Every structure is written in structure tokens, then in C-alpha cells.
Amino acid sequence: MSERDNLEISRRRLLGTVGAAGAAGLVVGAVGGAGVSAAVSGDGTASANGAGGPAALTTVGSTEVMFHGKHQAGITTPLQSRGHLVAFDLAPRAGRKEAVALMRRWSATAKTLMAGKAPARDTGVALDAGPSSLTVTFGFGRTFFDRTGLASRRPAGLDPLPAFSSDALDPRRSEGDLWVQIGADDALVAFHALRAVQKDAGDAARVRWQMNGFNRSAGATARPMTARNLMGQVDGTRNPKPADPDFDRRIFVPAGTTGAEAWMAGGSYAVVRRIRMLLDDWEKLSLDRQEKVIGRRKSDGSPLTGGTETTELDLDKRGPDGGTVIPDNAHARISAPEQNGGAAMLRRPFSFHDGIGPDGTPDAGLLFICWQADPLRGFVPVQRKLDRGDALSPFIRHEASGLFAVPGGPAEGEYVGQRLLEA
């Protein structure tokens, strides 16, 4: 048996027996082509959460997300506990030929890693870990099309985002020719994939910027719950759900798209924003004031107008003083789809903490990632509305931004972006 075969076996070996804990919600069925499956234990039974009660912690390592499918993985995949975002610029002399070779390498590496295997010349960082819900998602920035001679096939959805008054953007940490999103439920597995992607870039592309994020670990709560951000708020309550009848229409480019943008069929657009949270200022507010800024209870995410987290906002309800219970400038009110002509996007963020700044405040916040079929109908109208009077604005700062066209998932035998690069 070769050394590479040994590495592949070791990489797929599940974590040792470490006890049991609640991990419900880790294993889900195929959603939009990004299927998730559980590894099988030695006796031939699924090692995922079953009818017998809470799943073992080894389930975290055993969950695998499929590389091939209608859509790329990492869009409808459940939130992972670790994430890396990295943008690349093509090297000065690199063009379409080099981009084709790079996307072939990246796709092959992503497929191998997502299956829980080790690529050739592996670093050994993630030996003994299972797939851990690893996803690697690829996108193209506006400038990529000029660099590769494909400007005529650049989609209108990549038109530059408008400037917003709350922006304090650092161009060195914004945009890029190529974008890669990596997510996993194990920190070493996520880093392993990041390192492999960086090495595969070789002389074809150079890192423009890179950011690291995290979410709550799977199984850390007694039951599956909507994630909280670093302000302690439940974040993501009104996200569109794959079961919604209009989900695909809002989030993915239609399968029947023709012409110069046909290569985007089944794809989506990712808006990426590094949003600094001014936590010291936020934490000075009373609980009552924080809840009025957001428009929801901090304890469980329910609207100030009552009910549970999933109860619809009663935007017309008034209190004893005659004012609206959910303030007119509350974040939940301003961002509600019904306040924005039905505009909706799938938010799938990571939190970040990059240490303490020179002024003694935490450099922390949200790596905001949202997905939509058309940014001009998803992100832009909502952000414009927030920009004009969101009560949360004094406590956040948009420091970096990017917009990327993320093509549909590759079919068997294809690499990501092949329908664009080889048309």
C-alpha cells in the first residue's frame, strides 16, 4: 500500500470515542444538490443521529457534504463552526489558460478534501479527522473577466455595489479576481483546506486578503438553535428556507438562463462584508435599549410584539404611549422583507475576532455573507434602507466589501467554472 493510500485511510478515520452529546440537526438530506450524508460505522449502521437518541460527538467528524450537484456546497449547507474566506488576484502574466488550470486543481482538491481524503503531498494537518462537513465554494469577481478576456460574459449581477454612507471600506481587504469560502465543523479540517487551496494557487494567483471566522460548535446546545452573533443577538431568524416555494427564485439564478450568462444557471451571487461591531459601546446599553435597537428580545429572538422567535413582526402594534412597540428605526423593522418590496437574501455569516486594537477595543464582528439571485434585488435595497436610519448603525462599521459570481455546482467530470472558461 502506498504512502498516499495510507494518508487517505488516516484522513477518513473518524474521531475516537469521546462520549455522547446532543448533535441533532447535523445530518440533513440533499438540499438543492448539496447533499449531506453520514459515514457508516463498522457494523453497517449509520453513525449519524438516529432514532435511538442523541448522537455521539463523532458525528461531527463523519458528516460529508457532496462536491458535485446542482448548486455549489456551502450555500444551503447548515452553518459550520469554522470558516475561512480568501480572495486571490491572478498573477500579472496569468490569463484564461492559467485560470482554467487553477480551477481544475482547486476543484480536484476540494472534491478530495470534502470526501475526507488527503490530497497528494499532504501536510498531515487533518489526519485522523473525518470530513467534518467541509465545504469549499468558489466565485469570480468583476475583475476576473477582464483578466481572462471574458468581459463579454461578465454578468450584470456583478455591476459594482453602490456606495453607502456607513462604509469605511479598506480596498486592500475588498473585492478580488477569485474568491474561496471554506467551512467545516473542525478547525484543523478547515485550516487544512485553506492551506491546500493556497498551495494549489502556485504561480497563477496571489492572496489578496484572507479572513477567519467561527460559529457555535455543533452539539453545544441542548437542541438546534438559530445562531447568535457577538452582540449576543439571535441572528438569522427570518432567513429564507429551502422549503419556501420561492426559495430558488430568490437565491439561485434560474436554470433556464440563456445567452452570455447561461454559465451562471444554478449559481448565486455572494455579497461579502466585514462588519466591525463596536462592542464596548453596545455593551454599555441597557438590555431594554439593546432590544429596542434590534426590535427583538435578546433572550429568545422573539419580536417585541410577542410570540416566539418565528412569530411574524406586528409592525403596526402600538404601546400605551401611542408609539409603535417595535421602534420605527429598529433593525428588524427596517430589514424586514415587507418593508423592502419583498427583497430577501440568504444570510450565512461567520463571526470574527482578530485581537485587540491599539485603542484597546476588540477587533471583532461579523463576516457577513449573503446569497441571492440578483444583488440589485436582494442586498442593495435592504442595505440602502438600513443606511438611511437603522438604529444599529452607530454600533457597527462596514470595513471591507466584495461581490462575487458563484457558478452552479459542477456535474460529475466537471470542474467549477468550466461552463464559463471553456465555452
TrEMBL record:
Known cofactor(s): heme b
Protein's cellular compartments: Cell envelope
Keywords for the protein's UniProt record, in alphabetical order: Heme, Iron, Lyase, Metal-binding, Oxidoreductase, Peroxidase, Signal
Its EC number(s): 1.11.1.-
Free-text cofactor note: Binds 1 heme b (iron(II)-protoporphyrin IX) group non-covalently per subunit.
Catalysed reaction, written as an equation: heme b + 2 H(+) = protoporphyrin IX + Fe(2+)
Spans annotated as Disordered: 295-320
UniProt domain Dyp-type peroxidase N-terminal: residue ranges: 72-215
Domain Dyp-type peroxidase C-terminal: 226-409
InterPro entries attached to this UniProt entry: Dimeric_a/b-barrel (IPR011008), Dyp_perox_C (IPR048328), Dyp_perox_N (IPR048327), Dyp_peroxidase (IPR006314), EfeB/EfeN (IPR006313), TAT_signal (IPR006311)
Keyword Lipoprotein listed: no
Predominant location: other
Family: Belongs to the DyP-type peroxidase family.
Reported function: Involved in the recovery of exogenous heme iron. Extracts iron from heme while preserving the protoporphyrin ring intact.
Name of the protein in its database record: Deferrochelatase
UniProt organism field: Streptomyces cinereoruber
Lineage: Bacteria, Bacillati, Actinomycetota, Actinomycetes, Kitasatosporales
